[in-house]
Protein: Tripartite motif-containing protein 16-like
Organism: Electrophorus electricus
Amino acid sequence: MSSCPPEIFSCSVCLEILCDPATLPCGHSYCLQCIQKHWDKAAKGVYSCPQCRQVFNPRPSLGRNNMLMEAMKKLSVREQDRPPSPVCGLYPQLPYSSPELCSLHHQLLELYCFDDKERVCDECSFLGHKGHRVVRPDEEKNEKQQELAQMKAMVQKCIHDRERIIQTLPQTFQNAIQDLQRDSLGIYTEAMKCVESMNSHVTELLQNYESSYYNRIEDQRYRLQQEICQLYKQEEELNRMANTEDSIQFLNVSRRSLSQVGSAELQISQPEAEASRIRSAIGAFGEGLQVLFKGSLANIFRTGKTLFNWALLPFLQHQNMIHITIVTGPANTSEQWPFFSVRFQPTLDHNSAYRHIRLSDGDRKATLRAENQNYPEHAERFLYWRQVICREPLAGSPYYWEVEWTGQKVTIGVAYKEMGRSTSDDSSRIGHNEHSWGLYWSGSAFSLWHAGKETALAAPKAHCIGIYLDQQAGVLAFYRVLHKEAHQICCVETEFSGPLFPSFRFWSAMGSTITLCQLD
């Protein structure tokens, strides 16, 4: 009996569990009230079984089947005592798990404490978790689902906005560049018009000066001709005087003639001197124009540093700049950008090398050695700090070079020629004075040194450093290079007052090396 399914005790009329079961003569059982109503609605005198259609005449007198009722009660008790079994069907079902009860209060663990991160019952929430954030998981889930829906909508909006920007970005950028080119062309056209207008005015001025000078020449020629005639007369007078035999008359005539000759002064304007003054004024204008152009160009470069790659692309290509891969995303993706470099290969200067630094490989490699290299004395040699600089002064156009180093610590930078060499103070140490800049690896982090001030930098270690210098534009940048991929470490913007020299400093680790790389 205990194995019988519940459908055995259901009424085929109401389809529910039998209530006050009544059994017909045919053996089928129904709810007493259901079978009575069924027969009340049937045709008069026709009383049949709803299942087997057996007709009873006369209408049977029905009562509750007590034996069936007792069997149903016993079955119900056994079903309650037995743990429920998993539901079997056509599809796989998850295994049944009985509700978890609180070990202290034997109540369902229907709540969750966020502070203690555990499930609790109602009584626990008032006792051991008082003041904590206790919620019903289902209710909290509903609230979180609403928040997730809002976040999802927000994310979808962000995705839509960014997709729209991606679609419009090329055109927006192109429009911006075209506007800049149009404005730039307009400014330079106006500047050329101003220069041409000034040239026209100066040309007109010189033409007027030429006409005026011709008039002055005619006046001076007429005056000189008059003076020549007068001098001829004086010459005749002197000839007559020379032939005078009377001494008294000779003396009187000679004193008067000599005084007249002395008063004839040659006064004529010099065109070379006046032209030289005009030429100096025009030359000063040209020099001022060159200074203005160079200063304005450097200012444009510094102002547009954030768009440096794009703004200088045509210029860098014209200057024979090389290209390098710059990583802008995951390790397996990269983009080609114009790198700020020219093919430049510096060499180390023997005259500056510290006495324990050995140069090799065509003066491209420096090694810190324990033995003295016995260099001759030289005014440019570092006497205290383990440093060496390059021969080539860098000025004007951009330069790019790369340095590989080994050891525990290193300083790589640039310096003016005026930096000290013979002292043990900061005036001779790279990065610790006004005449030098140095990128320093301390063994754990990078930092930039200048004028004795340190700026900490967030960049991982790299044994190959790229240096970009545009002395004219006032830009100095350091890059870490790995597998032909470069990331900027830092960038300095300033006004350089003169040529700079690549500079390097060793620390105490013997065998440390610095190598100037050959750029392909």
About this structure: The first strand starts at residue 21 and ends at 23. Residues 439 and 448 are 5 Å apart (CA to CA). The chain has a mean pLDDT of 80. The chain has eight helices and 22 strands.
